[in-house]
Write a structure and sequence with these properties.
The complex is a heterodimer of chains A (257) and B (315). Chain A is built from 8 helices and 8 strands. Chain A is α+β, with helices and mostly antiparallel strands. Chain A has 2 domains: 59 residues, no CATH class; 180 residues, Nuclear Transport Factor 2, Chain: A. In chain A, the strands form 2 sheets. In chain A, strands 3, 4, 5, 6, 7 and 8 form a 6-stranded mixed β-sheet that branches. Chain A has a two-stranded antiparallel sheet with strand order 1-2. In chain A, strand 4 and strand 5 form a beta hairpin. The longest helix of chain A is centred in the middle third of the chain and has 24 residues. The termini of chain A are far apart. A 6-stranded mixed β-sheet of chain B has the order 12-7-2-3-4-13, sandwiched between helices. Classes of the chains: A alpha+beta (257), B alpha+beta (315). At the A-B interface, helix 2, helix 5, helix 6, strand 5 and strand 6 of A face helix 1, strand 1, helix 7 and helix 8 of B.
């Protein structure tokens, strides 16, 4: 279809060629009593499409430079994180020398560390979870009996259901882990307590930076393919932090510690 | 040319409009979600038992001396502890060690001799026969095990209710809250000469120590849950029991929910007498009423709770 200009009298209308001919209509008596000004569809389609395009572009690149945008590239990556095992202590119900079971406790500490790293990564660091406020990967790390309680305490045990509306980005996680391992009469590990300290920095949408702080203890039991949480006592103490202005000595890590 | 300008103007306007529209947050959402939430919260869960059926445990203090057969010595203290998980309540019933009772296949004798005849298992059967209560577990400790257990948790804070001085047990306490090491706690538990009701009063003091232990355990658990392992390990190292570790863990978690102030501490009432030249205790009919009451739901109704044997000292 080709578009041409027609009409006059200072009014320019857009008409599609072949769509009609005023002279022919008059001759054939098919003219309208009151001639109607016809706006070509392009007049509405183009602005509407542009407005829609503007909305889409704004949503994609809001915040400037792609930071925090949906297409933020690196923003969707999960920050690297591992709990640092600071101590693993065997607790014996027998009169054996506990030092003989230090290696057992360390092994358990490493396995428990894997579970806790998974838990905190899914609960606080994976943008795919916190942006949606959906933490389905977290709950299977709790034993069935404690899953309902964990979900009820979800706002404390995770970044929270509304984290996606609050934060642009979460990063710079640090965490330490102290594990106590209860051995049974046969000196086999039966339960472990993970004492955790976790901190990450979250840049909020209002421009402030929050320290996300989680400390607590998790009781874990061994299952076929790892250790699962069956009891917990965990506190959150998030607070605003001031990040030093950019400069040679500015270190985000320092702010996190 | 003017058409191009119109297009450009329109596009720019569209960009502005789109950005503005895109930036507007729906009013409902804005009202429901503050821009920034400061989180200060606590989450907690313990896998406590929640059944309404009471759990009965027989705590036995063996009177064995070092070198004796611990399981076949006279029982020095006997307490039934009932736990009602659903109500987060418990009761302690002391049975005077000189209670003159029927021992299965052994005739009538002091209850403490049941262990000499048949170890903890026969004492369990004797208590079950006496009270009609089916015991779920038994736990046996010694004088030295008891001391070690107390020391393993760093001592026990006890509110000593009255002055106690007794050279036999080694007790020497002024009334008031104090931290007792293992040796002192044992003296507190064994002293009967300072008490007007003798062994009855002593049995109540044994229950008082159990309640003090519960109070301290709860306090420590609240501050540092990993202390639960210390308590369990300290108990297991110094107590003989057939209770599986995972069930003890479950009981320990359950006890974190119990208010020590709501634990009943009762001693089966009776009168002292003689049998064959030996001092004995004849349990009264009220004792049977208490047994029946306890068996029913693991607790003793107020109307069936006898006065404290140490009432005259408590004022």
């Amino acid at each position: 279809m080709q578009r041409v200009a027609s009409g006059g009298g200072g009014l320019r209308l857009w008409e599609v060629v072949g769509a009609g001919n005023l002279c022919r209509d008059l001759v054939e008596g098919r003219h309208r009593a009151t001639p109607q000004r016809r706006f070509p569809p392009a007049v509405w389609i183009v602005p509407t499409a542009l407005v829609a395009l503007g909305i889409v572009l704004f949503l994609l690149f809001r915040g400037g430079g792609g930071d925090g945008g949906l297409l933020g590239g690196s923003d969707n990556t999960i920050p690297a994180f591992d709990f640092r095992l600071t101590r693993a202590v065997p607790v014996l119900v027998t009169h054996h020398d506990p030092k003989k079971f230090d290696a057992t406790a360390r092994d358990v500490g490493t396995q428990v560390g894997d579970t806790m790293t998974d838990l905190y990564t899914e609960a606080f660091l994976d943008p795919a979870n916190w942006r949606d406020g959906s933490y389905d990967e977290v709950w299977p790390l709790f034993e069935e009996g404690s899953q309902a309680a964990a979900q009820q305490d979800g706002t404390t045990l995770t970044l929270g259901p509304s984290a996606g509306g609050q934060f642009e980005q979460v990063g710079q996680p640090v965490g330490t882990l102290n594990v106590r391992v209860l051995l049974d009469r046969a000196n086999q590990p039966v339960t472990a307590v993970a004492i955790v300290k976790f901190k990450a920095l979250a840049s909020a949408k209002n421009g402030t930076t929050m320290a996300v702080v989680s400390t607590g203890q998790y009781f874990l039991r061994s299952v076929s393919d790892g250790w699962l949480v069956y009891a917990f006592s965990v506190s959150r103490d998030d607070h605003e932090v001031v990040i030093p202005s950019p400069g040679p000595s500015a270190s985000p890590t320092a702010a996190a510690s | 040319m003017s058409r191009r300008i119109a297009f450009a103007t329109l596009a720019f306007a569209a960009w502005i409009a789109g950005s503005t529209i895109g930036a507007v947050t729906p009013p409902g959402t804005a009202a429901a979600q503050p821009l920034l939430e400061i989180e200060q919260a606590h989450a907690g869960y313990v896998p406590a038992l929640d059944g309404s059926k009471p759990i009965f445990i027989l705590f036995i203090g063996s009177g064995a001396r070092p070198g004796d057969d611990v399981e076949h010595s006279l029982a020095d203290s006997i307490h039934i502890v009932s736990i009602v998980p659903a109500k987060h309540k418990a009761a302690i019933l002391g049975i005077p060690r000189d209670s003159y009772v029927s021992i299965p296949d052994r005739g009538t004798a002091k209850i403490n001799s049941a262990m000499v005849y048949g170890g903890p298992q026969l004492l369990v059967e004797t208590v079950e026969s006496l009270t009609g209560i089916k015991l779920d577990y038994w736990a046996l400790t010694t004088f030295w095990g008891f001391q070690a257990m107390i020391n393993s948790v760093g001592g026990l804070t006890v509110d000593v209710p009255f002055a106690m001085q007794d050279s036999s047990s080694g007790s020497n306490f002024e009334p008031g809250v104090q931290k007792l090491r293992g040796k002192e706690a044992l003296a507190f538990a064994r002293d009967r000469h300072s008490l007007p009701a003798g062994d009855f009063g002593r049995s109540e003091d044994g229950g008082r120590l159990i309640i003090a232990a519960l109070a301290q355990f709860r306090k420590e658990f609240a501050k540092d849950p990993s202390r639960l392992l210390t308590w369990i390990a300290g108990g297991f190292r110094n107590v003989q029991s057939e209770a599986p570790l995972d069930e003890v863990l479950a009981l320990a978690f359950t006890s974190t929910l119990m208010n020590p102030k709501r634990v009943e501490n009762i001693v089966a009432p009776g009168t002292t007498g003689m049998a064959g030249g030996t001092s004995i205790v004849n349990l009264s009919s009220q004792a049977q009423t208490i047994f029946d009451d306890l068996k029913k739901d693991g607790l003793v109704s107020k109307r069936n709770i006898p006065p404290s044997p140490n009432a005259s000292l408590l004022g």
